[in-house]
Design brief:
Strand order of the largest sheet: 4-3-5-6-7-8-9-14-13
Strand content: 15-25%
Structural class: alpha/beta
Number of strands: 21
Shape: globular
Helix content: 25-40%
Bound molecules: 5'-O-[hydroxy(phenylacetyl)phosphoryl]adenosine
Distance between the termini: 33 Å
Largest sheet: 9 strands, mixed
Number of domains: 2
Mean pLDDT: 93
CATH superfamily of the largest domain: ANL, N-terminal domain
CATH class of the largest domain: Alpha Beta
Radius of gyration: 23 Å
Low-confidence stretches: none
Length: about 425
Amino acid sequence: MMYNRKIESMPREDLEQLQIERLQMTLNRVYRNVAFYKNAFESAGIDVEKIRTLEDLRELPFTTKEDLIKSYPYDMFAVPLRDIVRIHSSSGTTGKPIAVGYTLNDIRNWSELVARLLTAGGITNQDFVQISLNYSLFTGGLAYHYGAEKIGSSVIPASLTGDIERQIMIMKDFKTTALVSTPSYALTIANAVEEMKIHPEELFLKYGLFSAEPWSESLREKIEGKLRIVATDNYGLSEIMGPGVSGECQEKKGLHVNEDHFIIEVIDPKTLQPLRAGEEGELVFTTLTKEGFPLIRYRTGDMSSLLEGPCSCGRTFVRMDRVTGRSDDMMLVNGVKVYPSKIDEVLMKLGDTVPRYRIVLGREGETDTIEIMLEISGIGILDEMKNILHYRERLQAALSAAIGMPVKVLLVEPETIKRMESGPRVIDRRK
Ligand code: DLL
């Protein structure tokens, strides 16, 4: 099933023509309305009128997260604020968040793109769709809500809550047939269903659309087995739109990119040179229809590759592989983006140098935990136990405030971390 068969299965030549036309419109729009792009194009000697092929796109400069942080909140918006009908913000813990804005048209397009994902994931107007993602500045909840309403299914806006039993009660009582959540939340629900000795047949679930964090094929199998559903992967990011950028069809062989709205490129994050299909690199997106917050060649930091060949579902949109990691050291903890540089910053403020440390991510029940293992030798003059404990408490409070969730500090013997130096900085025990 396709939500928009005409578009989703259009011949590649027609699609490329459409992309070029929309790219030219977008370039003109950003050149005229966004000072950042006017300056960026002029200093790179780019005449937007001369960008006439998809190859030409590669001459344009990249846009980075730092550019968006600098223009916070509204400097990258390409329309007057009176035309903006919705504002979301990324969960960033880089210091400053970013804000993104949508016009009414953007919201209409967005709803259609999410409707496509839902349809590709198996959902129709007969389904009861439980949306267990945050309804907040985070794009997830509202985007799926609008998309599911658009295809006429019955939407259950359960949102993301700590009360898993209630989620399951809703699922049973309202006869939920499709669950939309993060994969880790789905696993928590699946485990709770087992613990509550509810047989999957007592539920009505058929489909799961999971997104917003990296997950593996084995996690898919686990969730599918425990809940007896077909689970598909959806990818997106607030900067580009939110969910709606790409999603799997029932073949589960990669995520179709909504190429009539976005151009995808894969680059080598070091050389910044384009890579071919099959080669893993950083995903870069250019928006083609966005009015409020258009972006040109945005470096996502997400690592993946393009898959070659057509898909047997009939969609002609290119597929990307699941996201395997990051080109920077961003971590997703409870869905919040956390950068080690933020931890450096806090440690730096409390001492003269950054002591040796490792970040240990774990999981307790349904929540991720974050612990900083810190070498005592790096603390310097602290000798008395009392001082050490005081330091630890101050550090815990400062780190928790900076990251926005409880952080535990574990002080370890001198040289402990030094011996771990060749290993990764982040030890992820959630997997
Ligand atoms: O996570 C928006 C979203 C919500 C997308 C729901 C899809 C569904 P951000 O908070 O901006 O927005 O985080 C985006 O999350 O750059 C990836 O690193 C990661 N991510 C999102 N989807 C996937 C996925 C939303 N399917 C960041 N697989 C992105 C792996 C994902 N990583």
